[in-house]
């Protein structure tokens, strides 16, 4: 088992979820606190999953990379190592 690959894969999985959530949260917070806005906070949260396509590509790519790293880290060490 390769702990470093598992750790990196887990971090990538975490960042793959955390970064889009933080991005949307910050944008929602800024939009709802602006003095001249026409957005209500609950209306912004309602459309949380209406993310741009690039965010979905990012999420899928991070999931794939994390999965590959974790699976390769879980394999038994070869006799050469």
Secondary-structure map:
Layout: H1 3-33, H2 41-46, H3 53-74
Description:
The structure is a single chain. By secondary structure, the chain is mostly helical. It has one domain (3-74). It contains three helices and no strands. It has helices at 3-33, 41-46, 53-74. The termini are close together. The mean pLDDT is 74.
| Unreliably modeled segments | none
Structural class: mainly alpha
How many domains make up the 3D coordinates?
1
Topology order in helix (H) and strand (E) letters: HHH
Our count of helices gives: 3
Q: Sheet with the most strands?
A: none
> Separation of termini?
11 Å
- C-alpha-based Rg, rounded: 18 Å
What integer is the average pLDDT? 74
Could you tell me the strand content as a percent range? under 5%
Based on Cα principal axes, name the global outline.
elongated
Helix content: over 70%
Number of strands: 0
């Amino acid at each position: 088992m390769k702990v470093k690959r598992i750790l990196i894969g887990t971090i990538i999985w975490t960042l793959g979820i955390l970064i889009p959530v933080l991005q949307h949260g910050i944008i929602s917070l800024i939009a709802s606190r602006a003095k001249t806005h026409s957005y209500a906070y609950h209306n912004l949260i309602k459309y949380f999953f209406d993310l741009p396509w690039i965010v979905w590509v990012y999420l899928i790519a991070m999931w794939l990379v994390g999965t590959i790293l974790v699976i390769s880290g879980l394999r038994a060490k070869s006799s050469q190592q």
